[in-house]
Every structure is written in structure tokens, then in C-alpha cells.
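Sanity check. The docking grid for retinal depends on where the pocket ends up, so I'm generating a full predicted complex first rather than guessing from homology. Inputs follow.
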Amino acid sequence: MTNTLLSAVLEGTDYIGVTFFIGSMAMVASALFFLMEYTRVSGKWKLSLLISGLITAIAGIHYFYMRDQYLETGDSPIAIRYIDWLLTVPLMCVEFYLLMRHAGAKKGFMFRLILWSFLMLLFGFIGEAVDPDNTVLWGVLSTVGYVGVLYEVLMGEGKKAANNSDDEIANLGYKILTWFIIVGWAIYPIGYMTMDGNLLSSVLDPSSMDIIYNIGDAVNKIGFGLVVYYVATTSSVGSKSKGGIE
Ligand SMILES: *C/C=C(C)/C=C/C=C(C)/C=C/C1=C(C)CCCC1(C)C
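Predicted complex below; grid placement will be based on this.
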């Protein structure tokens, strides 16, 4: 028999499977929302809405595959997860840059974010899929990449751009960005540390990893997109030229 959409059964108590289902639908709905609202926001925010739509669309499609693979095997769909991240995380860096561009951030800021986050994902993948016996070592290396991103945003060009800007909206954007990088992105290492032999494996069951990753994806891909949307649509208040809905 060929693979149909529902090739395996979702049990009511399969909470991991449930979060894959909710995640897939939430991503698709968000993609539709961002792409349709694209036409309604003013010029300088259009690209941000488009990128939010692409991020959630790419994730939505991967969630369908992850969900099916998880239901069939009961295992964590590591490869599909990392392929999704490999595509969506650089797009998030573009999105961060677009937000900070209004405060004068340069393209180099974007490329450094992409480079640091690529290293973060590469080492995380090795720790999960290639060499899980040394998950702590690879987790530490991955965290160096994460710290690189934190540095760029908190102390590097992100901060410089925010300091130089008297644009209230751009500064609000910077504040939001820092919260997502510090709190939103920190959800993922918690999931990673539930792996056998890692720091939280005695506290959290390794099977909770996918639930934690799925929560992280919802917060960062949908949540961040919504916040950018909010900034884009409220920035018109008082000054039409600053953006907002036309
Ligand atoms: C949409 C997907 C996003 C925003 C994914 C972000 C992923 C991370 C911030 C992952 C970070 C990790 C560490 C900091 C150490 C352990 C390994 C990772 C890859 C889970």
C-alpha cells in the first residue's frame, strides 16, 4: 500500500504526536495569515511579512513529514528536523536583520548571524545524529555558536544600531528581538539536554525532546512573526510614513 496521509494511528495519550499535529496546522495557518497580510502592510514591512510566511510555510511542510515519520517509527525525526532548521534559521537571521535594518544595521550583521547559527546547528546535529556518545561535547560546541548570535545581538552591531536610533519602532523591534534570542532560542538546548547521557536526562525523559522542540518552533517561528506583524501594523500610528497598514 502506498503511504497515505494518515499512515499510522494517533493515540489520544500520545502527547508528542499531538504536538506534531498541532504544530503542522499552526504553521500552515500562520503561513496563510502572513502571506495574505503581506499585501496590507506598507512597503518597508512587506519583506518581513513575506519572510515570516516562508518560514512558517517551510516549517509546516516539514511538520507533516516529521509527524508521519514519528507516527510510523515512534522515533524522533532528527534528519527532517535539522533540514527544517537549516532552512528556517538562516531565514530568521534575515528577519532579524530586516527588523534592525530600520535602525541602521548592515548586511554584515546578517551574515555573521547566519554563520554563528549555522555552526550551532551543525554541532547540534552531530551531537544528536552522528556521535550521540559525546552529546555534551557537541552541545557545548553548539552553544558557542549560540553565544556568537547572542553577542552579535546584545553587544555587537545589533546593540550599536539600537543605540544610534531614535526611531521608537526600531528600538521596540530591538527589544523584542533580544527577548526572542535570549528566551525563545534557549528553549532548544533544554530539549537537547534531555538526551541520554546529557545534563537533564535524569530529570526529563528523552522522549520530551520533541515536545520541547515543537514548543520552541511555535514560539520562535509563529510568535516572532506575529510580533513583527504587530510592529508593522502599529508603526503607522501618528506617522503614516513609518509603516503600518495602508
Ligand atoms: C525555527 C527553528 C529555530 C529558531 C531553531 C533554533 C535552534 C536552536 C537555538 C538550537 C540550539 C542548540 C544549542 C544552543 C545547544 C544544543 C544543540 C541545539 C542545536 C539544540
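Relevant for the grid: Residues 237-244 have pLDDT under 50 and may be disordered.
Also worth noting: Residues 85, 88-89, 92, 120-121, 124, 139, 142-143, 146, 185, 188-189, 192, 217, 220-221 surround retinal (CB under 6 Å).
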